[in-house]
Every structure is written in structure tokens, then in C-alpha cells.
């Protein structure tokens, strides 16, 4: 019955920020339906995607996450009416920022998984895990954090140029 | 240092089969701040809970993590156990190692490693948990019912019979709604007025019901148990206290040619009028648009003839504000005006059916008035154009309904049955007449419904033609109906004397505007949305607001009455308590940091954020900050993620708690 599992050299760390009402429940459903998916994901529960601060995502990357998933109710189904719509806007803007600081956007995934979509949860988590595995560990951001730590002086050539352009 | 107790559950074998629970407990036991880590076969069982309670006392625990199933399953159980042992329930968290771990992974090594991680994150979170006190809010035991049709009447009577005060608000001059307009009702053919009017009188006489007719909802503030509603009492121009309802004014009003909306334009009424003779209240209203006095300042006959001097031309709209604890919305429906394409709506009209241009093309409700004994023809079926008795009547079903290409995809539910009824009523009154029905399917689920429909077809000889009508046009004094009979695949043409269209049931005009005042959601057609399609069919997602009748979706009378009584039962359940207790997962503002940008106010879906003034001892305004009303806050936390100065925190999901978990990744 057990397929022989292939061992990988790299097991990515995936962090999922989910809302209680839809995606958390969908993940529960995957469990009650005894579906299987890679064990790389760690789930953090929030009342609503509206509560998820972009800072959490940044910090998760800094703390060793190789991939981040944000998932909530489908648009229009948010338990709090519009939290996911605010979240969608916020993250649309945030993606630009993340791109700017040099995080490969493929490491961040947004999805809607409802309480009835245990299968979709499995699919989303499996796909993301495989994708991140293929991308390898996330080094650039950690490197960025230590190397390019701002010295506190406003005299780098880039800043100088930016000033001149104002 | 915290003293946290961790309890790892085997869940029989459900968890222990793939997760090495002993190892989880052993590893977690090594974490700083963990005073006790142990495993047990069934944590949720009585002995399991006993173990937990005992440990709280013995080890002086100040936080608990139960690593077991989903918190959606047993969080309440364990929090109650914690509470019973004297620990604040919000210091107890669950780590989900069943649904999110043992059931979805096969490799024991991997599953155990993940379980350890899951529990570890929870332990870090619990360290930052704060004791929270449940929030109690008082309840105003008084209900508002919006809409005085059969739904509103039923809900109001049920609540009032239970001993609670009810405000019933109706925008027309009389209660009664559509049911008062109907002739006879399916499937029993009992006279609608005969069963409706006694209920209307009950409402008028009920000591617990305050009736506000000719009134509309202006504004709604507050939250479950504590709403403040402002009602606009439109100027009636007649003093309700003085009027005796003698009706002399109506008889003497020289302006008599105004089309009666109640009679669907078939009859006329004076400018000072009650919509129908059995109106409740029986106090007339002056229709200021059509009244000669209001138009030209001359006339004033009604004031002269009124014995008690009740006519008051100077009356103004009046705004009253009333506190209520619960709201039942029962605003009902209206029929699709098929000729018009409503502005800004995806709905296309049915110009090809000539409704509104050909006088003998009428809708179902107009036919009801023709068939009604108290209607403009005294119950005789006569053509609106020339008053002749129609010998061939064509009924067209699904006009507007189930026509995605025209903009409405739903089924209006009642048309199949009322059309069958119409063919019967017609046959009972015009014995030598013939009824034809164009239909897609006959949908007759309901007690005794299919039998009724069969009777129309088999005994009353209505000819049912399966197919749609493509066009209607006037030819001489006949109306040519062009359609198809798809069961035999031929084109059909019928020269009819009268055509009755079963037009779609739609929510009332302005349903969306009312929903916005109430803060409830509605679908693309403006039908109000229930909180859950199956399990919460009468509650709105907004606590304390309930739905009854066709404002939520097309419904027949029995369904409407059932839903109204169900809504009333929900209100009574709410009113059975003096205080409302709710989870303290609400946002709180740190007033020192708040910079009063009010982004939180903009994003709050509940309107829970208010502007609070801080004043010094002399009463001078120092500054303005945000304040979250804990009674209104739904606890989504959108404000917190939006706040640029990090001045608002959602209890139970504070940045500290979340960050503790992220740091432990
Ligand atoms: S509750 Fe799921 S996204 Fe808002």
C-alpha cells in the first residue's frame, strides 16, 4: 500500500496564513477525507485574511520560510463580508514591494480555498511545495537582510542619485 | 516564566498511528516555560478532561496547549474544562495534529516532526495569550418588523403574542401587502381577503404592536440587542387621532380619476384615499401629487366636509427614533415590469410582448384584481380595453424568470401554481371560455400542489402548450400570440382576447438601499442573503437581523408564513435572555498611539469604529481618536492590518501572539 517515498535533498519550509472560516476548515476537510499532501506546510490561523499583515509575510521569509501561502474565503464569501477584498488589494500592492526588495514572487502564493474544498487545499499545498522545492532554498532575502543592512548614513550613491532626482 | 501544560492526545489510534505522541510530549517538555508535557489516549473524554483539570491545580499552570484534533471540533470543550478548573478559557489553545497532521501524512518520521513543530508554535503563542473576559451587552426587548405584508404581519403577531413590544413599519398607507390583493389562493382556493383581513385587524388591536404605516426606515444604527432606528413618518395630511374613518372625504373629493395602484390601474380612486376598503388603519392619506389643493391651492373640500376636523394640509414628515433589539426584514417582492429595461440593470425588457402598450396584455397580479370579488369589476373577468368577456385567454409562464439571456436566471417559484389557479378561476367564471398556457415545465412541489395542477389540466381543460412565446401583436380587437409547441415541433398562433403574463418576482425597488442602511448583504438581484443557505435560512450574517418572506427569494404564502414564524422564534430566543454574551475577540484601540487617520473606520465592514473625542478637565477638546464599539465589532481584524500606526489590536490575535509563532518557525 505504501508507495516508496523518494527522498529529496531539500525539504522547503512552507508557511500558510489562512482564515478560520474557509481555508482552515477546508484543510480540516482534507484531513477528515484522509487526503494526503506533503508535510512541509505549517498553518497559522487568523480570523480572516483581512487580519493578515504583510509584515507577517516578510518576517516569515526572514525566519526561514522558503514559500508562503495566503488563503481565505472566495471573494464574496468572507465571513466578515469584505475582509478578503481588503486583503486582495493590500497584497496586490505588497507584491510590488516584495518584488522590489528582491523576493522571487513565485515564492508567494495567494489562493481562495473554501470550507468545502479539501481537494483544492491539497492541490494548492502540493503544487506550492513542489514549485518551491524546484526553486531551492530561499537565500536572497536572508542574504539581503544581513549584507545590505542600512548603515544609518544617507550617503550611498543610489540614495544620492535618488535625492538628485527628486 | 510561564508554566504551560501540554497534553498530547492519541485520539484512540487516529493520531498515534502516524505520530509518535510520546516523542512529541518528550520534545515539547524540553521547551522553556513548559511545566508539564504528557500524553493521553482520549483527551476529550471525561478522564482526559479530569487529567487536565487536575494538572492545572497541581502544577499551577497558567496556559494550556491541547494537541489533538481541530479547534473547530473541541476548542469549546477544553476551554470549558479550563474554566471549570479556574483558568481563563482564553489561555487554552489547541494544536491541530489530527486533521492537519496525522490524517494527511503517512510517513511517521515526517508526521512526528511536523506535530512537534505545530505544538511548539502553539506553546509560543500561549505564552503571549492574555486572559480575556467575555463581553456582555444588554438587550432591548423590542422588535422592529419592516414590511406589513403577510410575512411582517405573522412575525409581528408571533413576537407580540410572546409579550414583547413590536414596531411594524409599512411604507404604504395600509398593511396587507400583496396578499390583500389576491383573489383566491392555491391550492385550496380560499379567498385571500377572508384569511388576511382578520390578521390585519389582530395587528391593529394588539396591545403590543405599534403600527407605523405610510412610513419608511430612514436610518439604522447600533448592533444586536441595541439598534437605534429612525423612522420617517410621511405626512399623511390627516390626523390619525382625530380621523374616525367615516369616509366622507373620499366620497366628496372632486378628483376621482386617479388610477388605483392597488387595483393595478384597473380602477380609480380619489386624491384622499385608503388603498382598499378593508385597509388597516382605516385612515386616508392625501396623495399630494394629485390633490387639487396641493397643486393649485384651491378646493379644500375634504377639510370642509370632515366632521372631526382631521384633515391637516400643513402636516410635515416626522422623524422618530426608537430603540429596538432585533429587526425582522419582510419587505416582500414586486413584479417585473417587463416592458421596461430598468436603468443601470442587466435586465432586458420584453418589448416584444407589448405589455403596457396593448391594453389587454396584463400581468398575473392584474388578473388577480379582475378575479377578486372586491376588485374593480366585482369579480367578473372583463377585458381592460372594452369591458367585454374574453373567450380565449392565453397565459404565458416564465416571463422574465429562467431567462438568463434576459438577465434573470432564477425560477420565480409561484407562477406555475398561480397560472393553474388563474385558468381555474377563469373557467369557473367564463364557462364557455378556453384557457391556453405556454409553459416550459410545470413546477409543482408542495403539499397538494401537483394534484391542483393536474386538476387544472384534466378537469378544467386548460390547454397546456410546452413552448415559449416569441411575439404578441394586436390585430383588430384580438391579440395574436405567436409561439411554438416543442412537444410536437410546430409553430402555434392563437388569436386571444386577453393575454396574462406570469412575470418574474423581484425584490422591492430600493431593497438595496435598505440593505445598506441595515448593513445586510444581498445578491445580484437584490434579494437579501441569509447567513447560511441550509442551516441559517432566516438569519442575516449581521447579528440581530432576520429575514422573512419574498425579500429573501421568491416564496409562496405557506413558506412565507413559516419563515416569518421562524424569524419570530429567533427574535424570541434572543429576547429570552437579559444579556448577550459573546466571544471577546474584538479590536481595541490604543488611544495613545492613534493618529486619527481613521483608515480603520473606512475598512471596517461593521461600522464598529467611531470617532471619540478626548477632552481635558475643562472640557476642551484635546484630540480625536478611533474607538471600536465592542458590541458591533465582528472580530475580523482588518482594521489592525490596515492601521499605519499599529494602534489597534484584535484581542486573541494580537501582533505579539502572531509574531511569537512566526519567530518560532
Ligand atoms: S473570513 Fe475567510 S477571508 Fe475573511
Automatic annotation (TrEMBL), chain A:
Taxonomic lineage: Bacteria, Pseudomonadati, Thermodesulfobacteriota, Desulfuromonadia, Geobacterales
Keywords from the named record: Iron, Iron-sulfur, Metal-binding, Oxidoreductase
The keyword Iron belongs to this UniProt entry's keyword annotation: yes
Source organism superkingdom: Bacteria
InterPro entries per the UniProt record, alphabetical: MvhD/FlpD
Protein name per Swiss-Prot or TrEMBL: Hydrogenase iron-sulfur subunit
Segments forming domain F420-non-reducing hydrogenase iron-sulfur subunit D: 14-136
From TrEMBL, chain B:
Gene3D superfamilies (alphabetical): 3.30.70.20, FAD/NAD(P)-binding domain, NAD(P)-binding Rossmann-like Domain
InterPro entries: 4Fe4S_Fe-S-bd, 4Fe4S_Fe_S_CS, FAD/NAD-bd_sf, HdrA-like
Name recorded for this polypeptide: CoB--CoM heterodisulfide reductase iron-sulfur subunit A family protein
Keyword Secreted: no
Family that this chain belongs to: Belongs to the HdrA family.
Cofactors, names only: FAD
Keyword list, A-Z: 4Fe-4S, FAD, Flavoprotein, Iron, Iron-sulfur, Metal-binding, Oxidoreductase
Residue ranges of every copy of the 4Fe-4S ferredoxin-type domain listed in the record: 234-263, 282-316, 585-614, 624-653
The keyword Transferase is assigned to this record: no
Biological source species: Geomobilimonas luticola
Amino acid at each position: 500500500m505504501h508507495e516508496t517515498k523518494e527522498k529529496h535533498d531539500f525539504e522547503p519550509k512552507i508557511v500558510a496564513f489562512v482564515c478560520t472560516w474557509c481555508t482552515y476548515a477546508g484543510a480540516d476537510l482534507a484531513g477528515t477525507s484522509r487526503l494526503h499532501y506533503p508535510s512541509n506546510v505549517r498553518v497559522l490561523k487568523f480570523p480572516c485574511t483581512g487580519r493578515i499583515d504583510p509584515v507577517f509575510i516578510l518576517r516569515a521569509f526572514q525566519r526561514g520560510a522558503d514559500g508562503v501561502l495566503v488563503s481565505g474565503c472566495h471573494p464574496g464569501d468572507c465571513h466578515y463580508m469584505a475582509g478578503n477584498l481588503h486583503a486582495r488589494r493590500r497584497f496586490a500592492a505588497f507584491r510590488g514591494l516584495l518584488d522590489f526588495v528582491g523576493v522571487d514572487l513565485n515564492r508567494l502564493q495567494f489562493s481562495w480555498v473554501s470550507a468545502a474544498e479539501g481537494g483544492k487545499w491539497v492541490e494548492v499545498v502540493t503544487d506550492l511545495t513542489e514549485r518551491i522545492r524546484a526553486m531551492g532554498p530561499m537565500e536572497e532575502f536572508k542574504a539581503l537582510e544581513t549584507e545590505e543592512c542600512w548603515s544609518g548614513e544617507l550617503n550611498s550613491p543610489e540614495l544620492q542619485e535618488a535625492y538628485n532626482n527628486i | 516564566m510561564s508554566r504551560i501544560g501540554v497534553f498530547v492526545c492519541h485520539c484512540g489510534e487516529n493520531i498515534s498511528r502516524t505520530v509518535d505522541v510520546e516523542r512529541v510530549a518528550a520534545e515539547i517538555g524540553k521547551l522553556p516555560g513548559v511545566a508539564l508535557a504528557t500524553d493521553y489516549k482520549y483527551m476529550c473524554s471525561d478522564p482526559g478532561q479530569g487529567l487536565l483539570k487536575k494538572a492545572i491545580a497541581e502544577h499551577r499552570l497558567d496556559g494550556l496547549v491541547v494537541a489533538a484534533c481541530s479547534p473547530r471540533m473541541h476548542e469549546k470543550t477544553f476551554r470549558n474544562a479550563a474554566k471549570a478548573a479556574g483558568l481563563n478559557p482564553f489561555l487554552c489553545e489547541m494544536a491541530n495534529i489530527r486533521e492537519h497532521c496525522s490524517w494527511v501524512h503517512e510517513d511517521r518520521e515526517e508526521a512526528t516532526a511536523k506535530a512537534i513543530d505545530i505544538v511548539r508554535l502553539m506553546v509560543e503563542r500561549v505564552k503571549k495569550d492574555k486572559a480575556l473576559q467575555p463581553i456582555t451587552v444588554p438587550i432591548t426587548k423590542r422588535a422592529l418588523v419592516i414590511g406589513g405584508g403577510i410575512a411582517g404581519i405573522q412575525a409581528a403577531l408571533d413576537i407580540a403574542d410572546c409579550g414583547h413590544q413590536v414596531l411594524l413599519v409599512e411604507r404604504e398607507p395600509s398593511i396587507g401587502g400583496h396578499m390583500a390583493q389576491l383573489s383566491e389562493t392555491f391550492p385550496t382556493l380560499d379567498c385571500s381577503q377572508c384569511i388576511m383581513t382578520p390578521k390585519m385587524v389582530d395587528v391593529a388591536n394588539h396591545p403590543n404592536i405599534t403600527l407605523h404605516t405610510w412610513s419608511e426606515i430612514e436610518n439604522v444604527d447600533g448592533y444586536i440587542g441595541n439598534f437605534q432606528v429612525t423612522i420617517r413618518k410621511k405626512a399623511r395630511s390627516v390626523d390619525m387621532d382625530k380621523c374616525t374613518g367615516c369616509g366622507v372625504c373620499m366620497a366628496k373629493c372632486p378628483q376621482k380619476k386617479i388610477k388605483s395602484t392597488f387595483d393595478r390601474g384597473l380602477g380609480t380612486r380619489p386624491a384622499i384615499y385608503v388603498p382598499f376598503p378593508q385597509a388597516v388603519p382605516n385612515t386616508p392619506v392625501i396623495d399630494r401629487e394629485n390633490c387639487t389643493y396641493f397643486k393649485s391651492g384651491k378646493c379644500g373640500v375634504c377639510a370642509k366636509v370632515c366632521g372631526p376636523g382631521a384633515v391637516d394640509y400643513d402636516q410635515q414628515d416626522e422623524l422618530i427614533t426608537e430603540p429596538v433589539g432585533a429587526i425582522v426584514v419582510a419587505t416582500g417582492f414586486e413584479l417585473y415590469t417587463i416592458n421596461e429595461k430598468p436603468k443601470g440593470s442587466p435586465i432586458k425588457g420584453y418589448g416584444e410582448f407589448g405589455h403596457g402598450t396593448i391594453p389587454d396584455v396584463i400581468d398575473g397580479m392584474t388578473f388577480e384584481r379582475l378575479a377578486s370579488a372586491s376588485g374593480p369589476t366585482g369579480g367578473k373577468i372583463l377585458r381592460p380595453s372594452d369591458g367585454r368577456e374574453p373567450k380565449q385567454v392565453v397565459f404565458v409562464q416564465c416571463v422574465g424568470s429562467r431567462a438568463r439571456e434576459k438577465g434573470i436566471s432564477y425560477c420565480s417559484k409561484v407562477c406555475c401554481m398561480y397560472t393553474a389557479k388563474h385558468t381555474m378561476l377563469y373557467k369557473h367564471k367564463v364557462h364557455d371560455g378556453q384557457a391556453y398556457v405556454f409553459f416550459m415545465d410545470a413546477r409543482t412541489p408542495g403539499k397538494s400542489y401537483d394534484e391542483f395542477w393536474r386538476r387544472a389540466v384534466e378537469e378544467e381543460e386548460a390547454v397546456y402548450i410546452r413552448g415559449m412565446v416569441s411575439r404578441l401583436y394586436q390585430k383588430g380587437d384580438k391579440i395574436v400570440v405567436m409561439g411554438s409547441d416543442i412537444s410536437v415541433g410546430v409553430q402555434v398562433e392563437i388569436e386571444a382576447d386577453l393575454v396574462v403574463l406570469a412575470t418574474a418576482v423581484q425584490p422591492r425597488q430600493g431593497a438595496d438601499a435598505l440593505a445598506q442602511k441595515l448593513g445586510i448583504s444581498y445578491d445580484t438581484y437584490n434579494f437579501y442573503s441569509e447567513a447560511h443557505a441550509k442551516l441559517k435560512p432566516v438569519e442575516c450574517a449581521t447579528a440581530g437581523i432576520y429575514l422573512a418572506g419574498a425579500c429573501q427569494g421568491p416564496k409562496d404564502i405557506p413558506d412565507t408564513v413559516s419563515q416569518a414564524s421562524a424569524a419570530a422564534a429567533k427574535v424570541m430566543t434572543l429576547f429570552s435572555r437579559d444579556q448577550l454574551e459573546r466571544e471577546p475577540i474584538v479590536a481595541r484601540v490604543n488611544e495613545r498611539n492613534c493618529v486619527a487617520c481613521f483608515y480603520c473606520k473606512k475598512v471596517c465592514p461593521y461600522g464598529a469604529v467611531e470617532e471619540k473625542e478626548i477632552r481635558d478637565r475643562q472640557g476642551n477638546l484635546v484630540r480625536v481618536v478611533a474607538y471600536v464599539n465592542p458590541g458591533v465589532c465582528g472580530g475580523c481584524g482588518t482594521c489592525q492590518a490596515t492601521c499605519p500606526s499599529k494602534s489597534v489590536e484584535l484581542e486573541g490575535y494580537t501582533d505579539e501572539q502572531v509574531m511569537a509563532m512566526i519567530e518560532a518557525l
